[in-house]
Amino acid sequence: MGKKPRRPRSAFTPEIKAEIVEVCRRGDRTVAQVARDFDLTVTAVREWVKQADLDAGTRTDGLTSDERDKLARLRRKNRRLREDVDILKRATAFFAKETLWMPKTSSLLVAAC
Questions:
Q1: By C-alpha distance, which of 14, 23, 20 is closest to 66?
Q2: Which residues, 6+ apart, have CB-to-CB distance to 76 below 8 Å?
Q3: How do residues 39-84 score in pLDDT, each as one tens digit?
Q4: By C-alpha distance, which of 76, 7, 13 is closest to 43?
Q5: pLDDT at position 96, please?
Q6: Distances in whole angstroms, Cα of residue 3 to Cα of each of 6, 8, 43, 84
Q7: Can you tell me the distance from the alpha carbon of 17 to that of 21, in angstroms, rounded to the nearest whole number?
Q8: pTM of the entire structure?
Q9: Hey, how many other C-beta atoms are within 10 angstroms of the C-beta on 50?
Q10: For a Cys-Cys bond, which of 46, 52, 64, 85 suits 21, CB 3.0-4.6 Å?
């Protein structure tokens, strides 16, 4: 048996996801049946239902959408700050190295007078 070909990744609006979750919550069809009816993967539909439960507060074993967004923002900010620190470290090393090799100008000024 060979592997199944990968499906192309699709983007779904929050409204479509909410509609799929509502169909699952009605209880007349299983998650697998809903996924098959809408040509989705079972895993995707399960994740949407789980995320909706987290956002509604009926589950507590994960992050809400707001918490996920905030975490992503903080990770981006942290990455930028680390890059800034790295640039400053390189600049400090560059200027420290440059000042070690500079001739003393004060001795040249005294000799010229």
A1: 14
A2: none
A3: 999 999 999 999 999 999 999 999 999 999 999 999 999 999 999 9
A4: 7
A5: 86
A6: 9, 15, 17, 45
A7: 6
A8: 0.65
A9: 14
A10: 52
